[in-house]
Amino acid sequence: MKILFNPAVAGIYKPNRILQNKQNFGVNLSALKADTVSFGRNPKLLTEKEGKDYVNKYTTSTSGYRGVYGEDFNDKFVYTMTQAASKYMNEHKNRPVPLTLIGGDTREATKHYAPYISKLMRENGINVLYPQLEGTKGDEISPVASPVLAVAARLNKIPLSVLLTASHNPWKDGGYNFLNSDGMVAGLAQSDEIGNNILEITKEGKKFHTNSKKGRKIVFDPYKTYKKYVEERNLINFDNIKNAGIDIYYEDLGGTGKYYYPKLMSEHGIELKGVLSSPAEGPNPTADNLKELSNAVLQSDNPLRIGLATDGDSDRFGAVDENGNFIDTNDFILLTAYHLIKNKGMTQGTIVKNHSTSDRVEALAKYFNAHGCDIDVNPTPVGFKYLGGEMTRLEGTPKEIILAGESSGGLTVRNHLPEKDGFVAISNLADLVATEKKPLSVILKEINSLIEGEYKSLDINVK
């Protein structure tokens, strides 16, 4: 006789018991069915959906990613972005061992995450240039002005460097940006590739993996690197400023400038009459934020007095004249262009500006062209990466740039980085006052009269 074995009857197995009582095991099977990578997914990474949201915000930005520290600028974002950047660095290395550079501003987000990012990069087989000013010890990272970091990136020809700054944004923000080997903000192609890396990593749920040995931390002094670069390229006429007897007041707004500009001036014999670190919601050199600087300038009885300022990461500029009046960014660019053409001998070349910058720049070029110069004005979309790209395109040609500037408060000059530099910008304004030996408001009035055709007697004396 054949005996049939029924496990259900035997009590060994009861069909659907697990499904009927799945809550007893704390397992949601429907959730597992919808998320097939829950097992083994790296919990430090953004989810796939979060990755898409971050990539959309990052790739549409004019410079990099910015968010509120502790909210959307958080551990998961920083970890994921660093893995995506590590993948790029390993795939585009120009050395046997990939080399990167990391630095940033004085924000809490930067101080918290910079050492962590450096550690992750080294774990991914990347050597990291780590900025420490004289006297800094341990793993502490020194604040680095953006133009200072950009110089180091350019000199070392690093394919991708990490710049942590939210620039002139509110202090509560953090920023994760990249520089290319020219020392300018990473362009569209690089941003898209890093964005695609984020999408790939968050979809797979796994960090970037390399079989390379752990990278090294290489300490360097960013101030010394920048000082030597500025001196070798004669980007600032220190002697002219020193000998002109100008009373210069400087406002750093609590940003990186306090660690660089006063020291740079002092070591070239220029003692600033006052250095301010005025509090503001965001370290942006606007008229409202430079009221303390205006008051300081008005304390001087020297007719040749001026107030200069930089933003949180020192790539943007600000200024007030001898009367304590704020110098509009369009006026600042106009004054600098005038100085470079008339006093610095840049009578042939190109002024690059974005579409939102004043058309008085064109009027100035037209005036100088009528006096024997050969100057073009090239407009670009908003975003300094476009101005920097135009500068790179024209480099070494008869029409290389004289100045590239935008009304949001950034500029660079010939023979310099294709990126904003607040230190060089404000120093050129001081050099203009030193050369003309006139108060800033008087010089601006003369320029405006000149380009409007009303100041017939001005002797240009183009060098």
Structure in words:
This protein has 463 residues and is an alpha/beta fold. It has helices at residues 7-10, 17-20, 29-34, 48-59, 75-91, 108-123, 146-155, 188-204, 222-232, 238-243, 261-266, 291-297, 329-342, 360-369, 384-394, 422-436, 440-451; strands spanning 65-68, 99-104, 127-131, 161-164, 173-179, 217-220, 247-251, 274-276, 305-310, 317-320, 348-354, 374-380, 401-406, 410-413. The radius of gyration is 28 Å and the shape is globular. The protein starts with 6 loop residues before the first helix and ends in a 12-residue tail after the last helix.
The number of E-state strands comes to 14
Q: What is the oligomer described by this structure?
A: single chain
Biggest sheet details: 6 strands, mixed
What is the percentage of strand-forming residues? 15-25%
Radius of gyration: 28 Å
Class of secondary structure makeup: alpha/beta
How much helix, percentage-wise, in residues? 25-40%
Placed side by side, the strands forming the largest sheet appear as: 1-5-4-2-3-6
Total helical elements = 17
Q: What separation lies between the terminal Cα atoms?
A: 118 Å
- Which parts are unreliable, with pLDDT below 50 for 5 consecutive residues or more? 1-37, 454-460
Topology, please?
Elements (H helix, E strand, L loop, with lengths): L6 H4 L6 H4 L8 H6 L13 H12 L5 E4 L6 H17 L7 E6 L3 H16 L3 E5 L14 H10 L5 E4 L8 E7 L8 H17 L12 E4 L1 H11 L5 H6 L3 E5 L9 H6 L7 E3 L14 H7 L7 E6 L6 E4 L8 H14 L5 E7 L5 H10 L4 E7 L3 H11 L6 E6 L3 E4 L8 H15 L3 H12 L12
Parallel strand pairs: 2-3, 2-4, 3-6, 7-8, 7-9, 11-12, 11-13
Antiparallel strand pairs: 1-5, 4-5, 9-10, 13-14
